Amino acid sequence: xxxxxxxxxxxxxxxxxxxxxxxxxxxxxxxxxxxxxxxxxxxxxxxxxxxxxxxxxxxxxxxxxxxxxxxxxxxxxxxxxxxxxxxxxxxxxxxxxxxxxxxxxxxxxxxxxxxxxxxxxxxxxxxxxxxxxxxxxxxxxxxxxxxxxxxxxxxxxxxxxxxxxxxxxxxxxxxxxxxxxxxxxxxxxxxxxxxxxxxxxxxxxxxxxxxxxxxxxxxxxxxxxxxxxxxxxxxxxxxxxxxxxxxxxxxxxxxxxxxxxxxxxxxxxxxxxxxxxxxxxxxxxxxxxxxxxxxxxxxxxxxxxxxxxxxxxxxxxxxxxxxxxxxxxxxxxxxxxxxxxxxxxxxxxxxxxxxxxxxxxxxxxxxxxxxxxxxxxxxxxxxxxxxxxxxxxxxxxxxxxxxxxxxxxxxxxxxxxx
Length: 418
Ligand code: LLP
What we know:
Strands 4, 13, 14, 15, 16, 17, 18, 19 and 20 form a 9-stranded mixed sheet that branches. The chain has an 8-stranded parallel β-barrel with strand order 5-6-7-8-9-10-11-12, surrounded by 4 helices. Strand 13 and strand 14 form a beta hairpin. The chain starts with a strand and ends in an 11-residue tail after the last helix. It is built from 12 helices and 20 strands. The longest helix is centred in the middle third of the chain and has 16 residues. Helix content is about 30%, strand content about 25%. By secondary structure, it is α/β, with parallel strands linked by helices. Helix 2 runs parallel beside helix 9 and helix 5 packs across helix 6.
């Protein structure tokens, strides 16, 4: 459930008409619902309540300070993957003891900053990285907590680009190497190796792959007599973009909780999309209607530079007119909703049954709260969209639309060319 609903043929975010926001905020803009964010976080929390897990929101899915603050205020921890995300975590006052840090390429300076801040864990993805963290912690005369990311080699049945837990991906370590690391604990006097981590992929609709991965890891820990305090089961829970049947938090918990409870380990979850995905939409304006002998196009003021998921993964995002004319359903027509970027792959939706929408009218691209703004770019020198958050019957511009000046910030021309 989310808080973007139609009332009298008009799209609302919580208690505000999206069209009213667009009167004050130029398009395109991302629009987030505070209530949806908080509700989705709470759904997971309640579902897993018996184990009191630490739920670390995956910052890469939506790193807006307002979004992070909304979740941190509700008690969430954060899953980060860079120094930049650590910086954001600090800005929203996140508790360091609720921060976990993954990623295959952590730089020495990023590692040092995270140790200094006192994060809960590094999720370590290679032996060299482990050596590096040991070396840095030693030089800082500190002890760092480390969980080893295991690649459990399971098939999560999702898009190849968002599969991470298969043996051939760059993520995590195979069981044999992990065993060797735990046997050689003495090599890491400044590390506290007290967790294991898995993250098998994203937009996974079924509990089975999670069960398989958790089962494999628990068996491994038992067989090898490895004792740790934490098991981080990652993120990856899928959501409904279209007609898919996404599992609820409760259904997911019912499947995995029995195994987790038996393990006696402390549990960490790292959901991104489950919390942020349906908490946001992208609001865009139709610039032109265009008809060719073969196609009907709606050309809008937003495209792959704002939301790359359709172009990159052929991801489906529902697209709806923000105001629906009452006669609209009679006149629907197959339409490609495309952006202004000079690439054939620049589309938000293809062959969508849409009513006639005049130029100047608004569309909402649904389910754009995760991996929307965070994956946006300035391609074609297009300033990035603004971000707006609704809290009840109020809205706040939480990030201004970029200006042309922002586009060239930090650039210079060699003096010989001046
Ligand atoms: N933990 C780790 C270590 C991750 O790498 C990720 C996502 C998550 C948690 C959160 O996954 P989620 O719960 O959001 O599925 N750009 C792609 C998704 C890439 C996911 C990358 N890792 C997309 O737009 O679908």
